[in-house]
Every structure is written in structure tokens, then in C-alpha cells.
């Protein structure tokens, strides 16, 4: 497997840990922003590449249908690429179906950026809050936090009343909205960690951090997710296949299903 020769703590590293940042929507600029930010903050033993889903994947993931359509489109393209990577980061801030799909079909570690930010917040803070894009995203994030069993630690989800693609279109105005909302979540809700609730927000982390001050931690799930996955790979961990993530490939073959 690819992970067996990746960088580890053992002397004589032959190559870096290779992580694929997966954008399950079809907007390439969002992928490019995530990859550029990650590469600027990584040591030589971790390498990242980007993947953008092709149409019929939606241009943004803003609901249940977008989630399913983007997962179905992306997984078909990803399967042939999988052997070249040690881990996979799904860069969509949601409980995205693609995360579990890849865990089922592959043994390399896979996680989503929402998971990454939530786990980080539980380590470095006591109460976290999430900056969401729209009001609907707020509800989806609240449900996801509850499903992860972390609602007790959630100070709130603040909706910024913006669309996902607006993050590229008017970053200055969006930054002002995010800074104001983050300040409110800290002041009024007692949050000590602010989580960026969309992959497209990754370039605005510094602005939000300046607004809330150095004692509050602003967490970007993209960079946090890359480091988390690299740690798993370097620890020699894979996706467990004895239970819920047993691959269904053998069953598809048994029933004569030659397509994915």
C-alpha cells in the first residue's frame, strides 16, 4: 500500500506523506485556494495535491441533494486515483457522505474538514462556535454537531447570510461579515474557538483571528485536517475493516455489478 513507504518517524524517509485534498464540488478556484494555503504552511515531509469533482457534481454543496450528487460524482473519479495517496481530506464543511464512502472502499485514512476542526476544538478549547455561510447551513451544522455527540460543547453556529460562491466573489465584504459574527459569538456566546464553516473561508482565517484576538483560537479545518491525517499515516494507522467500513466491493462483484 502507498502508506507503507510514506514518511514516518523512522530514519531513512524516502518520500513525504501524500494527502489528496478533495473538493467534491466542481468549482476549481476553491480547490486551488485550499491547496495553496496548505502548501504554504506544511513541512517537507507532507505533500498535498488537489482534486476537483467534474460535472455533474454541483458547483457548490449547500444541501442534502448537493451532498449526494457531489459524492456520487467524485467517488467514480477518485477510485482509480486512490493508490497514489496515503490519505484523503474531503474539503466540504459538512457531514459529507463521501467521507464514509471512501472509508468503506479504501483503507487509507479519510476525514472531512468539519471533523478535523471539531476534534481540534475539543483539544484546545472548552466551547466552540462555527461560522456558517447561510441560515440553512447553520441548521445543517447544528444537526451534524449533535450527531457527532459534541453539542454540549457548542456555543453556537452563526450564519453569515452569504452563499458559498460569494466567498470568492467579494472577499472583502465577506471578511467584514465574518469578523463581526465571530466577535459576537465570542462576546455573547462564550466561544473560545471559532471554526471556519466552509472550505472557501480558508483564506480569511487571519482576518477573523485579528478580530477575536489571540486568546481565541480560529480553526481552519483544511490545514488542521492535513496535519491530523499526516499524523495518522505516520503512526501506521489505516481504516479498520472489521466492522462498519468493510468494503462492499466483493458483494458488488458477487452480484455481477461491474460498474461502481
From TrEMBL:
Highest taxon of source: Eukaryota
InterPro entries: Asp/Glu/hydantoin_racemase, Hydantoin_racemase-like, Iso_Racemase_Enz_sf
GO molecular function, one term: amino-acid racemase activity
Family: Belongs to the HyuE racemase family.
Protein name from the UniProt record: Hydantoin racemase
Amino acid at each position: 500500500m502507498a502508506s507503507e513507504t510514506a514518511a514516518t518517524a523512522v530514519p531513512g524517509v524516502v518520500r513525504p506523506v501524500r494527502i489528496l485534498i478533495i473538493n467534491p464540488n466542481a468549482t476549481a478556484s476553491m480547490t486551488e485556494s485550499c491547496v495553496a494555503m496548505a502548501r504554504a504552511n506544511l513541512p517537507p515531509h507532507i505533500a498535498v495535491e488537489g482534486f476537483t469533482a467534474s460535472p455533474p457534481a454541483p458547483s457548490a454543496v449547500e444541501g442534502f441533494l448537493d451532498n449526494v450528487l457531489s459524492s456520487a460524482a467524485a467517488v467514480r473519479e477518485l477510485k482509480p486515483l486512490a493508490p497514489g495517496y496515503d490519505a484523503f481530506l474531503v474539503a466540504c464543511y459538512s457531514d459529507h457522505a463521501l467521507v464514509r464512502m471512501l472509508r468503506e472502499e479504501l483503507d487509507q485514512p479519510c476525514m472531512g474538514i468539519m471533523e478535523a476542526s471539531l476534534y481540534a476544538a475539543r483539544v484546545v478549547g472548552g466551547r466552540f462556535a462555527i461560522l456558517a455561510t447561510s441560515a440553512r447551513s447553520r441548521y445543517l451544522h447544528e444537526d451534524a454537531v449533535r450527531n457527532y455527540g459534541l453539542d454540549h460543547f457548542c456555543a453556537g453556529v452563526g450564519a453569515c447570510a452569504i452563499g458559498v460562491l460569494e466567498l470568492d466573489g467579494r472577499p472583502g465584504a465577506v471578511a467584514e461579515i465574518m469578523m463581526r459574527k465571530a466577535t459576537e459569538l465570542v462576546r455573547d456566546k462564550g466561544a473560545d474557538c471559532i471554526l471556519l464553516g466552509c472550505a472557501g473561508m480558508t483564506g480569511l482565517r487571519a482576518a477573523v483571528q485579528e478580530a477575536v484576538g489571540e486568546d481565541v483560537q480560529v480553526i481552519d479545518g483544511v490545514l488542521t485536517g492535513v496535519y491530523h491525517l499526516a499524523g495518522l499515516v505516520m503512526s501506521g494507522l489505516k481504516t479498520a475493516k472489521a466492522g462498519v467500513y468493510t468494503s462492499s466491493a466483493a458483494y458488488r462483484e458477487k452480484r455481477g455489478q461491474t460498474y461502481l
